[in-house]
């Protein structure tokens, strides 16, 4: 999941530093995950969480967990931009409803199995 | 879901204004949802999203949708504090796995119903 946001030695800043109009340092915490050619990926994250908060969140994690953290942060940010009221909590509600429906259907089907077995014995 | 963060005419600020050390205005956007006696509710929201972003998000919504938006924002913030890598996306993955397992179990049980019916006809 790790992406190269900035070529080694190249002067072009990552998408985060470009949006924030700042120099993209060699050790930029965003550069590996926000490549210059995907500006919208960082724009939504910045709009929803703010660059400063995401910077802090990433700094508090070991490097090997940052890729997964960025993926989940990007997912949440995109969901919030699509649905400003429920964000990805809307997806959670919808999945829970699907689980309820499946559990009901499974219980009915299991009851039918029990019922049918009575005729076979 | 609407809560009174600040008594009418009372001087005590809501949990958001208290944390931000600012005067809680009569039309404070946070006051109805972040009562003074629940400081942690706003603290996590501020840590994850930032007060300024949440202010903007709420201002962009009609008043009748703000309560639901605050609930989902609080849910996401708490999930991110509990699980800094996956946040509430961890819950989504887990629910999707449950759905996969239920669908498999349902398909097997439905196949068993078809099988048993052959013996009855």
TrEMBL record, chains A, B:
Q: What range(s) does the LOB domain occupy?
A: 12-113
PANTHER family, per the entry:
LOB DOMAIN-CONTAINING PROTEIN 4, LOB DOMAIN-CONTAINING PROTEIN 4-RELATED
Instruction: Identify the InterPro entries for this entry.
Output: LOB (IPR004883)
Q: What is this protein called?
A: LOB domain-containing protein
As for family, the record states: Belongs to the LOB domain-containing protein family.
